[in-house]
Amino acid sequence: MTMNRRFFLMGATGVGLSACSGSFDREAGIGLDEGGFGNPTMHNNLVQTGRISLAEIMTRRFHEEVPSMVNFDFGSAALSSEAKTILRSQADWMKQFPELRYTIYGHTDAVGSDAANHQLGLRRAQAVRRYLVSLGVPHRSIIAVVSRGETQPLIVSEGREPANRRTVTEISGAIRRSPDIMNGQYARVIQREYVQSATEAQVQVP
To answer: Hey, what domains does the chain have and what are their CATH numbers?
Structure first.
């Protein structure tokens, strides 16, 4: 018997071919936002009425979906393999949303002078920016690198505290006029993300 070939689009985060067992009756896109498909519409309304900004919404998502912080060895601005793994996940996320802009903050522990720690924090932030750009994040997406030195510790300590030797990537804002998004509409971001996550899969049907 001749085999007919049919093609389906499946969202990378949604319903896979394992759904042949009976989950094709689920709503398209349900895996994208865990059943809260009305959330993009609600957020879109909040953005358009000025009650919340796109940057606020996406900041929540960024911190929920990827680690925003990487740590460093004492006195060093070199990226460890663990830091590079985290930054790769940051870069993948950042490239999905070209309308967003970011600031990278460098921090140190309290060992050393204020001036030396300010410079070390700046070198750490610059190292993170260079690596993100090397992974394909556009230069224009990272609007600033800032050193906080030893002034904002996670753990108050005068000694060598690893948790304080870090950088933090934060969303600083969003472009209001972009070819990818009009007036900061969150629903458009979600729709674009869903379409771009689709992949073509070939299924043979007798």
So the answer is: 1-20+29-52+183-206 (no CATH), 53-175 (3.30.1330.60)
